[in-house]
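Reopening this one. Same input as before:
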Amino acid sequence: MLRVGGWRSATTIPEWRRGLSHCILESVRIPCLAALACLIACSQPDRRAELAACQLISTSGAELARCLVMKYNWGADSAGPAKIAWQWELDSIRLEHEAQAQAVVAKQQEREARAYRAHVDSLRARVRLRADIEQDFRTCDSKAFAVMINGDTERSKQMRDQCRDNYRAALRKAGFPSPS
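Same output, byte for byte:
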């Protein structure tokens, strides 16, 4: 309970009513301040046009304030909030632009990385194919050499010729240049 006045009277205000009266005062004060701000802004219709004109040529909050003060004789107390608001807007645009640019760069780098990996995989596959062709030729040639060691040189020559023909055909089919 709260005693009303500085008296020692028995008149008291219950807690819930005291809070209610505080809320009523606050709810009246805030709309009054908003109405006052609107009244001030509306009483100077050229202010919005002046602000818009300076925003067109300003690339920072400081430039906006300088334009408003120098060109339209705004006071520092009026130009300051406009300066801060304009700088916040420019900063948010810059941050959004940077985020979009980073997203574009990330997508481009991912595409390039995928293309590079595909190219490397293709090269590795071609190296493996060439190694397989070479291995097949060496295996065939070794068999022909074994036949020659056993004394059958004519059959060995035929086998070696067949190995070379198969080797050249495999290289041609795979797109490799044939040895001379």
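So the earlier flakiness isn't reproducible anymore. For the record, The radius of gyration is 44 Å.
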